[in-house]
Amino acid sequence: MSVITRILPKRALSRWVGHVMHFQGPKWWARASVQAFAWFYNINLSEAEKPFTEYPSIGEFFIRRLKSGVRPLSSDWAVHPADSKITQSAAIVNNSMIQAKGIHYSLRDFTLDPDCDKKWSEGYFLTYYLCPTDYHRVHSPVEGKITSVRHIPGQLWPVNEWSTTNIKDLFTVNERILVEIETELGPVGVVFVGATNVGHICLSFDESIRGNEKGPQVMKQKIYSQPLDINKGAELGYFRMGSTVVMLYPPKFRTKYADQLKLHSKLNNALGGNEGDRVHVLDGLV
């Protein structure tokens, strides 16, 4: 797999897959393909905002919204940002984060933020893996103000279990978008990590920032002179195919909540549980 993956034109391939997934053919084709996709990945159609027959392509179904109330918002201070599987969670010690068992990567290299030590070193991180079955919109885990966005271009390696255990510094070489949210406990980082076949990373609050675009691949940072208010549970963005979210929490969060995390829930669920457990967006974290 390593040799094949290395020689594939991953950025171009991912854009092409994005176009294919969003191909809008006749209505009968859209209905049949969306229904087949949902059946293959065992997706709960009753949770979708609209009937499956109303989605014009697999791609539009993939980024579907949920019905109101399907994921009740936890009252916890922080919630899970996505329907996903937590693959890693630990304290950030000596600028180091865990990619897989025995494999670490640098907080500094991951964020490319000169102030990252002050913000997140000795804090806490969690890695959420989104598979095709999952709802693919990402929500704010906290209430606060969005102060900046950093788009870091890079490769689009797969982010599955094989890749995290075999590709050194995977999360520091893949494309990523870091959304920074200022909270009462300090800055919280929500990092969207790109992957092979992720057509684009899109932000709901700022359409000018988008992942995997053609053109020069240079890092861009946008600092908001007027920070944007964001409610806990509000939509931040979405992946146009599956990928990974890495959460960065400040030292004050770790001091206050590290022993209370709930790591076994769904979107907007509070944090808590064990690594490898599935979580739901908006379930409580702490």
SSE topology sketch:
Elements: H1 2-7, H2 10-21, H3 27-40, H4 58-62, E1 84-91, E2 96-100, E3 103-106, H5 107-111, H6 116-120, E4 124-129, E5 137-139, E6 144-152, H7 161-166, H8 170-173, E7 176-183, E8 186-193, E9 201-203, E10 220-230, E11 235-239, E12 244-249, H9 251-257, E13 266-270, E14 278-284
Parallel strand pairs: 13-14
Antiparallel strand pairs: 1-4, 1-14, 2-3, 4-12, 5-11, 6-7, 6-10, 7-8, 8-12, 9-11
Largest sheet: 9 strands, mixed
Rg is 18 Å
Helical coverage, percent range: 10-25%
Count, helices: 9
Indicate the overall shape: globular
Oligomeric organization of the protein chains = single chain
Major sheet: order of its strands? 10-6-7-8-12-4-1-14-13
User: What is the beta-strand fraction?
Assistant: 25-35%
- Give the tally of β-strands: 14
